[in-house]
Amino acid sequence: MITTLAAADAATGNIFQRLIDWTIPVGSYSVHGLEVIGILIGFASAYLGMKRWVWAWPVGISANIILFFVYLGALFAADERIPLFGQAGRQVFFIVTSIYGWWRWNESRKRRGVDNAAPAITPRWATIKERYAIVALWLLGTVLVHQIFVALWNAAPNPYWQPQWWFYWCDAWIFVGSIIATFAMARGWNEFWLAWIGVDLVGVPLGFATDYVPTAVMYSFYGIFVLYGFSQWVKASRASSSPDRVDDRVTV
C-alpha cells in the first residue's frame, strides 16, 4: 500500500516527496540520499564540536532539519520504512538545545577574547551532582518518553506495521540520551562524549532493525569518532591549569 502511494506521488511530480524518496544504488542495496546528506553534515558538525568551534552548532542544526523529514518520510507517503517518531522528535529538541549551545559557546568565546578560529570553550568534567543529574534524568526520562510514545501509538496506530515491545524503549532511550548529550556538550562537559556512546550502543541495532542502514552505519563510525573526540577533550581539560571560570560565568 505504502509502495503504491509513494509511486503515485512520485508520478505526480511532488518534489518534496521525490527528494525524501531519492535513493542511491550501492551494489544490490539502495541507500536514501537525503539521509546520507544529513548524516554527512552531522559528521561535519561532530568534527567542529571536537575542535570546540562555534560553527558546530549552526552546521548541526542544518543536519537536524534534514533528518527530521527523513525519519518521518513514511508519513508523507514518500518512504516505505518505519517512521521513527523518537528520532524525528529529537531533531526538534536538537535544534532548541543547539540554539542554546550556539549562544553559550559564542558568549564564552567573547568573554575569553578569542576569535572564531580558536576553541570557544575549555572543557571540564561534570561535578558529582551533575553526573547524578545526568543519570537520573536519562533513566526517568526514558520511562516517561516511552509511555508517551506508546500512548501516541495507541491513539493513532499505524495499520502497516506493528512495533515490537522493545521498539519504543530503544527509541525513548536514544531520544532522551541524545538531548542530554547535546546539553552536556553545550555546557562543555567531557561526559557528553560518553553519553553519545550510550546512545550509539542502542542506535546501531535499532537502525539496522528498522532499515535505516545509513543511520546505523553512522552510529557505528560515530562510536569510533566519539572515542577520539573524548580523548581530545580530556587532553584539553588536562592542559588547562584551572577550570574555565570565565565560561562558567555564563550560567544560563
UniProtKB/TrEMBL annotation:
Keywords: Cell membrane, Membrane, Transmembrane, Transmembrane helix, Transport. It is a multi-pass membrane protein. The chain crosses the membrane at residues 29-48, 55-78, 84-103, 132-153, 165-185, 192-210, 216-234. GO terms for cellular component: plasma membrane. It is found in: Cell membrane. GO terms for molecular function: nicotinamide riboside transmembrane transporter activity. Belongs to the nicotinamide ribonucleoside (NR) uptake permease (TC 4.B.1) family. This is Mononucleotide transporter. It comes from Nostocoides jenkinsii Ben 74.
